[in-house]
Amino acid sequence: MELIIFLIIGALAGFAAGLFGVGGGTIIVPLLFIVFTQMDYSPDSIMHLALGTSLATIIVTSISSLMAHNKKGAVMWPVFKNLAPGLAIGCFLGAGIAGQISGLYLQLIVGLFLLWVAYKMFFGGQKQVVSHANDVAGANTELPSKPKQLAAGGVIGIASAIFGIGGGSLTVPYLTRYGVVMQKAVGTSAACGLPIAIAGALGFMFFGMQQQVDVPNTVGFVHIYAFLGISIMSFFTAKLGAKVAHILSPELLKKCFAILLTVVGCYFLFKGLI
């Protein structure tokens, strides 16, 4: 029965990721939080399990996304090589930091993050138009030095672990800020999601085992059944979501998703404050 529930979550997360053009983490973390709560898992472990499992599933989806973007020549591999070590180290350490934060505070942190993402999606239309104009014109790319890129990767990695995401919400704005065109920023971000997901999942497994999590079917803070079910289904349904997205209005989709994230973010804050 558990596996069926996780297959359904994977189907929803993959479809939403393809439909709204965002990483599955923003969908997977809230859904897992609700399911793990209904399963009466320890309140101190629920949020950590949701974050760790989310990062583990992103390993599979990021490989698929990376291959698709690489075929189009949208991955800036030299930039990836500069960012990747910082992303991996930062995300592993971020898992350790998350492990020291109580489940209550993690709920509040993730709730605020989802509200921020919702705000950016709802009011980011004008910026996206400007960004698209820059893409067409061919903006100049002047990225910081290698040490600065390494440091930026570390910060993005830490944040990605705490929020349970692949880092796209942070990597894309970082790259476009320095003149990288949107297509290559998204493609490179997709590649960066792989070291983030691998290091984050390993970190949550390692630090979770240190805390001896008493939850069945888990390795540290990663739920194995949830990982398998979500990974399998999201891989297929993401393509379906992308096809539907081309039929509907992109702006309407983004606003609907922003409303959904606002509701979920408020839910986290409400649960954390009462």
Give your account of this protein's structure.
The chain has 274 residues and is mainly alpha-helical. The chain is 81% helix and 1% strand. It has helices spanning 2-20, 25-38, 43-71, 77-100, 103-123, 125-137, 146-163, 168-177, 182-210, 224-245, 250-273, and strands spanning 218-219, 222-223. The chain has a two-stranded antiparallel ribbon with strand order 1-2. Strand 1 (218-219) and strand 2 form a beta hairpin. The radius of gyration is 18 Å and the shape is globular.
Q: Care to count the β-strands?
A: 2
Q: Uncertain runs with pLDDT below 50, 5 residues or more?
A: 125-139
State the helix count. 11
Radius of gyration (CA) equals 18 Å
Strand portion: under 5%
How would the global form be characterised?
globular
Mean of pLDDT:
85
Give the termini separation: 31 Å
Structural class: mainly alpha
Pick out its properties.
274 residues; mainly alpha; 1% strand
